[in-house]
Amino acid sequence: MKNKKIETRIRRKKSIRKTVFGTQLRPRLSVFRSNLHIYAQIIDDETGKTLLSASSNDKEIKSAGITVPEGMKGKTGIAFSLGSILGKKMIENKIEGIVFDRNGYLYHGRVKALADGVRKAGVKF
To answer: Quick one: which of 18, 76, 78, 124 has the fewest CB in 10 Å?
Structure first.
């Protein structure tokens, strides 16, 4: 057994991916969270292509002056602004609905903040 935390996350990920599938009309929003950054991809599973992607180390995320809700600061605030910028990109590319793939992470903290930012931009879950 390497790392129990990683193994349990991968087990949850497999369970989630059994039911979550992205189509052309409703692509999948996949989230990856490292210790320092957070990454998001919009994926069409029918063709196996990534439609959009964004990460917290992009220049436009760092320079964007997006106001975050009260209580969000640091990495959580960055995740919220990443979600809102990604949501704006989705609206520009005529993607109005998505399926959320939290990738085995608990729906809490940065993952929830990213989802809230996408919702605030006007994308339906």
So the answer is: 18
Q: Tell me the residue type at 26.
A: R
Q: Considering the domain boundaries, does residue 74 fall inside one?
A: yes
Which domain covers residue 114, as residue numbers? 4-120
pTM, two decimal places: 0.89
Q: What is the DSSP string of 27-96?
A: -EEEEEE-SS-EEEEEEETTTTEEEEEEETTSHHHHH--PPPPTT--THHHHHHHHHHHHHHHHHHTT--
Select from 18, 56, 54 the least CA-distant residue to 36.
56
For residue 90, count other CB atoms closer than 10 A to its CB. 22
Per-residue pLDDT of 19-37, as tens digits, reads 999 989 999 999 999 999 9
User: What gap in Å lies between CA 21 and CA 65, rounded to an integer?
Assistant: 33
Asked if residue 125 belongs to a domain, the reply is no
